[in-house]
Amino acid sequence: SESIPDALLRSVTLANQAVFEAARQLGTAGDTGTTLIAAAVHDNHLHWVSAGDSGLFLWRNGEFTLVNDTHIYAHELDARVWLGHITYEAAQGHPEREALTSFLGIDRIPMLDRSRRPFSLASDDVILLATDGLFKTLSYADMAGVMHCDSQPLAETLVERTIAAGREYQDNVTVLVIRLQPGKADPPGPA
């Protein structure tokens, strides 16, 4: 009986309460948390919610588009550069640049990004949900060559390539792929 955006919001709120309570019981409240990215496709429309630095990407016509906003300190640093408060070099080299500004596991989630209105999906669109370990290791060009694969092999290949990069201090990598089938979606309207 509730809308998809409301259901996603309710779900992320309940998930946050569960993570916060688990951390409290472990005595690690404030130090334990997780990022979250969730998506639902219904009637060829994409709905999402996110907290943290995981990404929701749309692959359409050979191009990637980051759909959600990530919650990292870099955005605040970049705004301070734009206002003339710090230099570009200081912002780029800041040791906390990649620090999370929102995540699940705290009393109240500081920031959420979510669709209030869905956007239309087209035949052959690919939705990629991924932790930052993927897109901070592989470039769009690195990923583009395998985007033709079926969903499960694509997810596995992207994880394998991320791990194979052998990056020091590699962040975790999780990938989920949703591929619309050819002819199963209407042409997209305005996003």
Describe the structure.
- With 191 residues, the protein is of the alpha+beta class.
- The protein contains six helices and eight strands.
- It has helices spanning 4-26, 73-82, 88-92, 132-135, 140-144, 151-164, and strands at 36-42, 45-51, 55-60, 63-66, 113-114, 119-120, 126-130, 175-179.
- Strands 1, 2, 5 and 6 form a four-stranded antiparallel sheet that branches. Strands 4-3-7-8 form a four-stranded antiparallel sheet.
- The protein is globular and about 45 Å long.
Offer a concise description of the structure.
The protein has 191 residues and is an alpha+beta fold. The protein has six helices and eight strands. Strands 1, 2, 5 and 6 form a four-stranded antiparallel beta sheet that branches. A four-stranded antiparallel beta sheet has the order 4-3-7-8.
Low-pLDDT sequence parts: none
- Decide which structural class fits the backbone: alpha+beta
Radius of gyration: 18 Å
Q: Tell me about the largest β-sheet.
A: 4 strands, antiparallel
Roughly what fraction of the amino acids lie in strands? 15-25%
- Following the backbone from N to C, one meets helices and strands in this order, namely HEEEEHHEEEHHHE
User: Helix proportion of residues, in percent?
Assistant: 25-40%
- Helix count equals 6
Query: What's the end-to-end separation, in Å?
Result: 26 Å
User: Strand tally, please?
Assistant: 8
> Shape, please?
globular
Mean pLDDT: 90
